[in-house]
Amino acid sequence: MGETIRLTAAQALVRWLIAQENEEGDSFIAGVWAIFGHGNVAGLGEALYAARDRLPTWRGHNEQTMAHAAIAYAKQMRRRRAMAVTSSIGPGATNMVTAAALAHVNRLPVLLLPGDVFAHRGPDPVLQQVEDFADGTVSANDCFRPVSRYFDRITRPEQLMTALPRAMNTLTDPAMCGPVTLALCQDVQAEAWDFPVSFFAPRVWHIPRPRADEGELARAAEALKSAKRPVIVAGGGVHYSGATDALREFVEAHDIPVAETQAGKSALPWDHPLNFGPIGVTGGSAANAICNEADVILAVGSRLQDFTTGSWSLFRNPERRMFCLNVNAYDAAKHGAEPVQGDAKLGLEALHALLGEARAPAPDASLRETWFAAVDPLTAAPGPDDNALPTDMQVVGAVQRATGDKTVVMGAAGTMPGELHKLFKAGRPGSYHMEYGFSCMGYEIAGALGIRMADPQADVIAMVGDGSYLMANSELATATMMGIPFTVVVTDNRGFGCINRLQRATGGAPFNNLLDDAVHANESHIDFVAHAASMGAVAVKAGSIAELEAALARRGEVTDRPYVVVIDTDPDPSTPEGGWWWEVAVPEVSDRAEVRKARAAYETALKERV
């Protein structure tokens, strides 16, 4: 085995992580988020302290949201770097399960290091231990299994010799990328073993770019050559592959229109003549019209979730053929699509070469003009005599007018994903960051922190509703402590406005979504300005769209902490234009006539599904 060094398992793990680099020469694991408890403070905590000058450790306020910050960092870094997150056992660990699911759905790398029970089982049951009456090997960390791409429980120090390379391989594999969970038995963290010195030699991890099969490429190219109404669906894989330039060159050479998913938005600038805008349930009329009639669909780097496909009711041409260019075989073959399994950038370049001079019939440019003519008035500033409560669309317009070359607008859940997908005009790749794979309430503020850590020069604006803000806001205190500035726009519509609209659209009565429709002994009057300020943020209230614009214009004055702007909004209006059917099951039996009517419409829509 050669020269050895005696280290605890925790020390070996930390030393090994420090030695792992990406192709740019940076440590692949940029740092560790940690909330210590009895399950990790003595072992991993001591090891991180000793290495704090080489591997920074940051203290979060909630295990879930500090993991969200790590995931947002990886997303903004296009998966070229990632972070680790450690918690104690029990509730600290299970708090991270939601974040693991978020990373799993979005195919994003994060290394989760929850503490675990004693491997030697002497003190069983230890504080916070979950006991399975029929299986002595189960702990709370088994909850991570279905939401981890790779899971391992470290019960001996030497198991790191195999577990760590497997973990890193998963984090850097574009097809298998996702969360890795290494459950660290708390006694094992402190146990020592003679590790080979060679195990800690620096290693560069090259993210592979697998080339698609020649036959798959040829079939897709032939279909595109003969297509009369082709369309490209640009997904998040375009960004992760660094394929935005390749996409632009491809569509310009062959005159193929592009529709953008939530994850793919900003792949082309909004004003590119071949960018027909957002697709699907939260899509625009231009992209959806193109997709509805398309005879050849090339989905690039997309999971093809139901919001993209309109619950598979969008692509209605009976002669259509769908090809999926995706690095992951599972995604490439969804719903009978013809797979083109490979890297998005290399795949587009190969298809470009195979198509030669072929050009599709020019798409109808008037569709874009009609779309913008319909929605631009919705985002315009209200007149000085308009005393109506602002709409979310007007808030998006105010933010749009405040953006600059370095602005990144982000969000995750509630009303804003739909409005931003439809209305925000992303001017450059990476200027739009939406977590809509899991649409996880509470991602926004922590995500803004992660984005700013990934790009310290970015002007990050997080769009968050009052409901999502209340779910997870504590990383405002973390960002203040760390001196990391970003802007948060809180739209207070007094509840879960978008779900209230969905409830009514499916025939339901307003119930338990808006605060006024929930059981309460006292009316809810939450002072979000005071709340944000109490955690150290600079916070202001905007009483109108004009005041919101003035407040946003001053955000550059706050350089060492978050800047929070709160504005009251109307929960009822949403953009009426665009959109597509989304399958939400309506009860077959109800005393309410509204529900019975909605059920009839639902059954009709089911018959029309592709």
Structure description:
It contains 24 helices and 22 strands. The mean pLDDT is 97. The protein has a six-stranded parallel β-sheet with strand order 4-3-5-6-8-7, sandwiched between helices. It has a six-stranded parallel β-sheet with strand order 13-12-11-14-15-16, with helices on both faces. Strands 18-17-19-20-22-21 form a six-stranded parallel β-sheet, sandwiched between helices. The radius of gyration is 25 Å and the shape is globular. 53% of the residues are buried.
Features:
610 residues, alpha/beta, Rossmann fold, 3 domains, 6-stranded parallel β-sheet, 24 helices, 36% helix, globular
Q: Summed up, what is this model?
A:
By secondary structure, the protein is α/β, with parallel strands linked by helices. Helices cover 36% and strands 18% of the residues.
CATH architecture of the largest domain: 3-Layer(aba) Sandwich
> Which class of secondary structure composition applies to the elements?
alpha/beta
Q: Terminal Cα separation, in Å? A: 61 Å
CATH homology-level superfamily of the largest domain: Thiamin diphosphate (ThDP)-binding fold, Pyr/PP domains
Helix content: 25-40%
Q: Mind telling me the CATH class of the largest domain? A: Alpha Beta
Can you list the strand order of the major beta sheet?
4-3-5-6-8-7
The CATH topology of the largest domain is what? Rossmann fold
Shape: globular
> In percent terms, what proportion of residues is strand?
15-25%
Biggest sheet statistics: 6 strands, parallel
Give the number of helices.
Answer: 24
Rg, please? 25 Å
Number of domains: 3
Low-confidence stretches: none
Number-wise, the strands total 22
